[in-house]
Amino acid sequence: MRFTLWDDFLALVFPVTCNLCNRSLFAFESELCRTCEASLPVTLFHQSPLENELTQKLMGLTDIRMALAYLRFSKRGKSQKLLHQLKYRNRPMLGVKLGRMYGELLVQQGLEKEWDLIIPVPLHRSKERRRGYNQSRCFADGLGESLGIRVVNGLERTVNTATQTRKNRLQRWENVSEVFHIVDEVSLVGKRILLVDDVMTTGATLAACANVLHTARPSYVDLAVIAAGR
Ligand SMILES: [Zn+2]
To answer: How far apart are alpha carbons 39 and 98 in whole angstroms?
Structure first.
């Protein structure tokens, strides 16, 4: 409480604004104003997590049980703006906030007992150093908080130089020339894993990660992303 005046002063000089509409936020709001929060393009995938267009898309690419996306991705839409803020505008707490909100929705749906571990899709180490954070880890942290599930950096991403020159257009788009390895000393055998990323387009990156995780013989791998498009 002692810092209230100082906080008010800071808020006047450096107003904290909504990531979508830029309006100054009230003290009870964080990252998004209440109006924008209520108008997010939330999907209904959590109502049919085992069978939806995301699980359909991944069929044949990897063995996935549930696939979830918080928001519907649309070019120039709200989800794209949020992802841009999160990735390029140094807003790691926005990722945590979106994870918390989605986690609450999944709890309402009774899904919090489905997983033992949350594993974020990693960035290449040099990229994470440049950005200062991994946006998928931020989302994972928020989800973990709401769901009461541990988040583990179980994968690492390195550049596979052998395949660099043989990339096709799709692979370049998804960066699958980069390869994933299991790094964590935590055993994944028999674990129920929720793999988390920021966005799903073709699903190639997520499928690559899930396939690597499957080599560690988990019970199953599910996925959740902030936004997915058609
Ligand atoms: Zn707003």
So the answer is: 13
